[in-house]
Amino acid sequence: MPKLDIIHNAVKHALMKDGWKITDDPYVIQYRRTTLYADLGAERPIAAERNGQKLVVEVKSFVGASKIQDLKEALGQYDIYRYLLEATAPERKLYVAVSAFTYKSFFNQDVIQLILTKHQLPLIIVDIENEEITQWIN
What we know:
The protein has one domain: Trna Endonuclease, Chain: A, domain 1 (3-Layer(aba) Sandwich). The longest helix is centred in the middle third of the chain and has 22 residues, at 67-88. The mean pLDDT is 93. The chain is α/β, with parallel strands linked by helices. The chain contains 4 helices and 8 strands, in the order αβββββαβααββ. A 6-stranded mixed beta sheet has the order 1-4-5-6-7-8. Strands 2-3 form a two-stranded antiparallel sheet. Strand 5, helix 2 and strand 6 form a beta-alpha-beta unit.
């Protein structure tokens, strides 16, 4: 089992506060003989605002020595998980969750915005201190 990201529990609590039911912690992606672990699986009850949507959430803190290297790794991991989910659980949408601080201090840079736009990376922005989702970016 992979080590939990330092903001894992705050993201999990923020999703629950937002009305999501955590179904998997971690979410196991099984494709033939390969097993990978995304951080969280969640679903929203049908009566709720997002109408029965199912998610897989990969949590990233971007605290490494190089945030660009962290981004390269996150984008590669996102692609791998997305391809496998398309084959195994196409009803689930994959998101990357980051802290509001990381989003404001790193993700708002012009070069990062260009990369995110080209990559079409869905994000969940979380206020870690208050354990609240502040923004969904599709």
